Amino acid sequence: MKFTFTIPNSLPEMTVKHFLEEQLLIPRKIRHFLRIKKHILINQEEVHWHQTVKAGDECQLIFDEEDYPTKEILWGNPKLVEEVYQDQHLIIVNKPEGMKTHGNQPDEIALLNHVSAYVGQTCYVVHRLDMETSGLVLFAKNPFILPILNRLLEKKEISREYWALVDGRLEAKNLIFRDKIGRNRHDRRQRIVDQKNGQYAETHVTRLKLFQNKTSLVRCRLKTGRTHQIRVHLSHHGHPILGDPLYNQHSKNKRLMLHAFKLSFIHPLTLNKLSFTALSDTFERELKQNG
């Protein structure tokens, strides 16, 4: 596996060590392989670890099979994939509701399998959406970029924005929910607000529109990534999402009205700002019917 790219103009001069460790966020084990095997070339020449690299230099990284063993998975149906963006290292797709991001068993077919078939190689999940939730999902196309994207996610440098249609009229334009979330001991499928034993969770909510039928369209930004975080916070504060089978069981909506609308981050290799938005046909249709 070999990758070649040009160091972006916006990057200041730095050592090879700093470039790999701080800029590319390459894990220590992989940096060790690159150094020992001399598998990093700058302008097609071997380099010392403390040599300086600068904007415009061509960087080539080489990985052996033992560095990143190939992972085989079952292929899905490429026709089920709605591509939003793709390059050499990653792909962003618009997931439909009712489909798992990845299977729980090796023989279970989910979005990951469909995306891998679409790309023609094994892909890797960077973040997931609940099965009932539609919207933008990021996948790594190779095991080299996966830990780099995971580090960006951990550092909260991948911004995710959701739209939700909820019961009730939100009187405040902006709200911040910081309730801790834990497991429901009586129903393993559910999460609940648990201020004593739960994990810290923070959701920023902005009211986008009020409808005549006493529902509200809201935008939610995640500062943490707990399971069912948006669904639990909105339900706990009296505004459950329409169509939510776990937290709004009396709703008559055909689908959960939660959609991952926007995904933004800085590409770790090109340093270009990537920002994408997408809606689904079913979300828009249900939105119009409820509005």
UniProtKB/TrEMBL annotation:
Name the source's superkingdom.
Bacteria
Listed PROSITE patterns: PSI_RLU
EC numbers on record:
5.4.99.-
Xref: Gene3D superfamilies: Pseudouridine synthase
Q: Keyword set for this entry?
A: Isomerase
| PANTHER family (UniProt xref) | MITOCHONDRIAL RNA PSEUDOURIDINE SYNTHASE, RIBOSOMAL LARGE SUBUNIT PSEUDOURIDINE SYNTHASE D
What the protein does? Answer: Responsible for synthesis of pseudouridine from uracil.
Instruction: Supply the name of the protein.
Output: Pseudouridine synthase
Species name: Streptococcus wuxiensis
